[in-house]
Prior knowledge:
Elements: E1 14-26, E2 33-41, E3 44-50, H1 51-56, E4 60-66, E5 74-79, E6 92-101, E7 103-116, E8 131-139, E9 153-156
Parallel strand pairs: 1-4, 7-9
Antiparallel strand pairs: 1-3, 2-6, 5-6, 7-8
Amino acid sequence: SIVPQKIDIEIDRLGSKYLPVEAVTGGMVAANHVLGQIDLIPSRIKVDGPEKILAALTSLKTEKINIENMNTNFIQEVNVIPPFTGYKTNQTVKAIITINKSKEEKIFENIPVRILQPVGLFYKCTVKPSEISLKVSASTFDFQGISSDDFSAHVDITGLQAGVYELPVII
């Protein structure tokens, strides 16, 4: 005797679908660095399987890419996780990982504004305000040893006659 005598079976058409691949990372990059862009080659992979299962899939994921304490760009071959149970794959992608230096903003204050004028021009000029502040965004390392004294600001009055003007500050 057979128990159970009947079993349920679902039959589905086979299909295929191209799915985008998403990179999965693990760990934290080195201090003063940030994870930049991750490019995957190929970025899309063809998946074959039952149409009902394929319809529910929106993307594939990679195995974890270890970025712990990384401070430079690197390339790594990484496996793609099978999209559903029973799917046999040995698909890999090339991951091109970009690690950038951290950016920070710093404000440099009390930078005097000078007047750029042609030689021989003898106008009395008043600049208001006579000092500016400058906000700079750069890598943390680029700010080492830099102060307000390293910047100069001026306005160019070349070709102007007596009057009141609103001019751009040139750094």
